Amino acid sequence: MVNLKDILYEGLSNYKKFRPYKHEEIEAEIDEYFDNEVSQRRLPKMWKDRDDGRSSIKTAPYEFFDEQELRSIINTDVGEILDTPEEDRLQKAIEMCKKYGKNYKRIIDGIKKKVPFPPPIAIKDSEGTLYLLGGNSRLMLGIAMGYNLPVKVSTWKKKIQEMVTEVSTGDLSTADEGEPDTGFSPAGQTRILGIDDSKPEPWYDKGGYSQLSFPKADDPYGGRRNKDIQRVIVKKVIKNTGVKYDGFQDDVGSWDKYGDKDYSIDFDLEELTKMYADKG
């Protein structure tokens, strides 16, 4: 029996109009790694510095992935494009580019005119797992237009870190599911776990967890378009900040209030033994 997906994939042509990265493009990809919370957690300390990143990108070889490899790549929407009917793929890819704020028109125009592109960049870890570091828009638009773009593949001797989803339970919090326990998140704000990112959550680092989902807060008032929903606006004025707020962020992010990251030294063994003995 012929697989329809195999037929569609065989219709993809290898896009051979590609070029080396320019210096500013390499710098942008390096910024993307060091500034991206997800990449930092999934590929911790992959590059020790910017020079290491430049060398990795420049020396990475080019590959054309088959369908199985394309579908296996982490951190890309390519699989969803491949699952979309061929006639709807381009519209789907455009919608995703709009969501990410990417200039899809320039990429589409370039592919139509066979303009050379710098290939997307993927990381292959010690187990052969692929993670797309940059070029998601180029890769999915290329596939949507019938082209399989080459990918620069940089090898990494370590393993790509797994991610876990934050779970809220009614027993622990009165907040609604998905809402930060400390209160309200502004519309559009990304929910980031960890004491240094969003709010004090010592359990996160102590437990050695990684974040899988990065949801964005909805607007409870329906956005500017919906003027029928009643709103409450509170204006606050803070005076005489000065010394009062000096070092405020350091205090909030300090482990002094939450014990040590290492559970094993949170308690003295004698104190712990005495505590349980007293309870008995």
Helix/strand structural class: alpha/beta
Calculate Rg over CA atoms.
Answer: 24 Å
The helix/strand series, from N terminus to C terminus, equals HEHHHEHHHHEEHEEHHH
What is the number of beta strands?
Answer: 6
Averaged pLDDT, please?
76
Low-pLDDT regions? 1-9, 166-183
The level of helicity is: 25-40%
Strands of the widest sheet, in order across it, are 2-6-3-4
Q: Helical stretch count? A: 12
Largest sheet: 4 strands, mixed
The CA-CA distance between the termini, in Å, is 70 Å
Beta-strand percentage range: 5-15%
Oligomer: single chain
> How many separate domains?
2
Which overall shape is indicated by the principal axes computed on the Cα atoms? globular
Describe the structure.
This protein is 35% helix and 7% strand. It contains 12 helices and 6 strands. It has helices spanning 4-10, 23-35, 37-42, 50-59, 67-72, 78-83, 89-100, 104-112, 136-144, 202-206, 248-252, 269-279; strands at 13-14, 62-63, 121-124, 130-134, 147-148, 151-155. It has 2 domains: 4-155, no CATH class; 162-280, no CATH class. The chain starts with a helix and ends with a helix. It has a 4-stranded mixed sheet with strand order 2-6-3-4. Strands 1-5 form a two-stranded parallel ribbon. It is of the alpha/beta class. Mean pLDDT is 76; it is low at 1-9 and 166-183. Helix 7 (89-100) runs antiparallel to helix 9 and helix 8 packs across helix 9 (136-144).
Keywords:
280 residues, alpha/beta, four-stranded mixed β-sheet, two-stranded parallel ribbon, 12 helices, globular, disordered N terminus
